[in-house]
Amino acid sequence: MCTLIVRTGLPVTLMGVRDEFTDRPWEGPGEHWPDYPGVIGGRDLKAGGTWLAVHPAARRAAALLNGPGRPAPETTKVSRGDLALRAAYTGEMPDADLTRYNPFHLVLADLARVRVFSWDGERLSAAGLPDGTSMIVNTGLDPANERVVAYLPRFETEPWPELITAEPSADPGALIVRHKLPGGRVFASLSVMEVTLAQDGVTYQFTDLTADRDG
Hints:
10% helix; 5-stranded antiparallel β-sheet; mainly beta; globular; 2 helices; 6-stranded antiparallel β-sheet; 38% strand; Penicillin V Acylase, Chain A
């Protein structure tokens, strides 16, 4: 995931935009993981994890974004995709050997609070989100990021679904992106997820942005 917008208070609302190479296989939301019963998310078919996990019975969600910092050694590196699953299932930052993971931001939300855990390859930090609307990108809670500058004021004042209808753009400040890279690979916004956590239930809306996907 490359962008996550969070509105605190009740209900808690999260909207995530997943940017990825279009040739990386994945499937839409489901209860795909027997080790984490009741947890729902889209599944990365290459590594097996997810970018956004929702545990409706617990009124909890966890989102994973890549972060900057020192990469894990290739000889011991494991996928970050299990972190969101474990956090959504337990309600805590996973107890794991973080030196085996590339840098990340893990956002864990429930009815009581929203926390951001950031690992830069050397140090883990944790912070609570302020009241109101926040935007987390790959550089974290970064008010100078082009996407944050362009879109955070709009998410504070405009209906969220209307902001994902724009045509994909190669502009680094765009919310919905599509880049054709040297060699022919395409990096693009593949899906948008909106999750609402409330006392009386959870909603999870999934929008597949890849009109030409098989299946």
